[in-house]
Amino acid sequence: MDIPSSDPRRNAPRLALHVPEPAYRPGDAPDFSNVTVPPAGSAPRPDSSAPARDTHPLVDHLVRVLDEDGRAVGPWDPRLSPDTMRKMLADMVTVRVFDDRMYRAQRQGKTSFYMKCTGEEAIAVAAATALDSEDMCFPTYRQQGLLVARGYPLVDMMCQIYSNAGDKLHGRQLPIMYSDKPHGFFSISGNLGTQYPQAVGWAMASAIKGDSRIAMGWIGEGATAEGDFHSALTFAAVYQAPVILAVVNNQWAISSFSGIAGSEQATFAARAVGYGVAGMRVDGNDALAVYAAVRWASERARANAGPTLIEFFTYRAEGHSTSDDPTGYRPAGEAQAWPLGDPVERLKAHLIGLGEWDEERHAALVKQADAGVRAAQKAAEAQGILPGQGFDRIGSMFEDVYADTPWHLAEQRDTALGEARTYLGRDAS
Amino acid sequence: MPTRNMIEAINDAHRVMMARDPDIVVFGEDVGYFGGVFRATAGLQQEFGKERCFDAPISEGGIVGTAVGMAAYGLKPVIEIQFADYIYPGYDQIVSEVARMRYRTAGEWTMPMVIRSPYGGGIFGGQTHSQSPEALFTHVAGLKVVIPSTPHDAKGLLIAAIEDPDPVLFFEPKRIYNGPFDGHHDKPVKPWSKHADSEVPDGHYTVPLGKARIVRPGNDLTVLAYGTMVHVALAAVEENGIDAEVIDLRTLLPLDIDTIEESVRKTGRCLVVQEATRTSGFVSELVTLVQERCFYHLEAPVGRVTGWDTPYPHAYEWIYFPGPIRMKQALEKVMAD
Fold first, then answer.
1. CB-based contact, B292 to chain A, within 8 Å
2. Domain Transketolase-like pyrimidine-binding, which positions (chain B) (predicted)?
3. End-to-end Cα distance, chain B
4. Do A202 and B69 lie within an 8 Å CB cutoff?
5. Cα(B233)–Cα(B322) distance, rounded to whole angstroms?
6. CA A85 to CA A348: how far, in whole Å?
7. Where would I find the beta strands (DSSP E) of A120-212?
8. Which of B251, B248, B150 lies closest to B199, judged by CA?
9. Residue A397 confidence (pLDDT)
10. pLDDT digits (tens, 9 = 90+) for A135-184
11. Is the separation of the CB atoms in A245 and A196 below 8 Å?
């Protein structure tokens, strides 16, 4: 609206709103020249019990271990054994194969929805490797690698995706919203960011009880705009909770680029500075850097030296979910142009460079993972797929709302079973 | 038997339970060193230590969110939201996380926590210290909603809420923290010490959740009320000489439908009372239930007394507050129809 000429503010400069836009859109050539990638090994490594401010130069840096030639360099090299690295590689490959099979299952109409983590496999797998098995994870929907790395049966993951008879969650959650207490994997919420203060609360509880277990939470860069992100950081800082808080900056929140979450003026790692917690930015496609950062932060938490905020800098190579078409909002080929490469290929190259791996073994690994995933899929589908579900245990829909079923739910259950009887022409349970 | 006001009763419930169960932690804004702005947690930090009773940042979302993590760990958080009006920043965590955790994990994770919060008006709190948001929570599957009206019930219900395996919203009618209030704002308020329901036993006892109380037996009309409105309803019934049965619901969810049904079938008339705004309020649910279950026993349409559908004003508080005049008119209407 134009300001009338009689307005006394007519000579004041017009204000303008800044709405961030990504540098490139569909049809443009992908270009990441704006992304600064410091040399691997160049980030200093403070002692894990150092004051938080000693880490703050790292919030604008990028902790990297694997260089362009696949060598592990610098002070963050975790010096892992070849066996450990081979296990991480195998888990990352399994996640990728699993994602592909389940993506296909969704396209075949066997389930409603799926979310791949292609390009981000290292963030969950290497973190799981760096944590103790009893530490509690509060993940997002793109940390399926935690379950894989912790040995959770693929069949159980798939049964949850299919909402079938083997689904321990009784078909109540979207596919990929797993939950498994024994494997330290907290129930995933569709409301973004809620898990962040929960992770802090779990860590606070562990400290209150004098336990030695810590918690780790993950959030996407887009969800850092939620209030829960900030309350989690506040509580973590105030109580010096033994928690690791990870921001997975994969550049895209569905179709909104990271600038819409506030990345233009400061890194997500830099949020740590204002809260006075340790913070660092880490190459999320470098499994060794991810491992090293989580290990460092876990040592810090276990020593009661405080929480750590880690931004994992990565790229979401695929669509947000099976319901998303990324060609509508970003250039084709961006994933291939991502300057930090592919996490699987980088770890593989490193192991080959060490003489601990080769192309033949890798091909065999992929084949083995593929066979394992296929066998799991067969076993899961034997217990049903989503379109076939819904009439075996209708009564279960009314269970677990409360510990005991109150009268109003019992009445509604009986009514629903009556409806089902009419619909099916037989008694339902 | 010792007499206690409602704050002292609530404080005692905390103390009894914290001594019995080392997994209970109490936190919220100002609840630690100072013992809460209403003093409900006074002395708990001194008695049980800073790790079991502590001050929280001004972040209701953070308070509820961290309580979720603590409950997931195996603790039993009893958290205070300083005023119910402040509960909205924590609403997502309560509705989407606390309420549904048992369901969405098929019982793998449960949320045995209590969320206490002073609610209601009549204290010159303006529109941000006077709200009655209970209907926002009775609409949510997985929560229990409890509202006491006496010191005796406050302690027994709070202990039952703490022992309950499900999450409980425990709304405390702050207008009657220190004494029962009959709605006559221009008359002196009697302290609880002169009231029979202020006899609060020492030690552990419970008032079961989901069980209403017949406060005053009667034959001509059933009045359903909770919180401060129980006292307003009692006074109005007696001032107007009506042989009404006044029922204190005590727990809104799950509701004691049997006691309600039995009473309305006996009296044939029903008036429902809430302090909250009118539209889509909890009493609308009560009207529907009574109509569904007692229709052929009803002599008149079910009446309804509520606050107005405006934000709670400061200057016109006593015009907003459902008091003796509104009660009298509603009673007369239900009795005349």
1. no
2. 4-179
3. 45
4. yes
5. 10
6. 9
7. 136-138
8. B150
9. 94
10. 999 999 999 999 999 999 999 999 999 999 999 999 999 999 999 999 99
11. yes
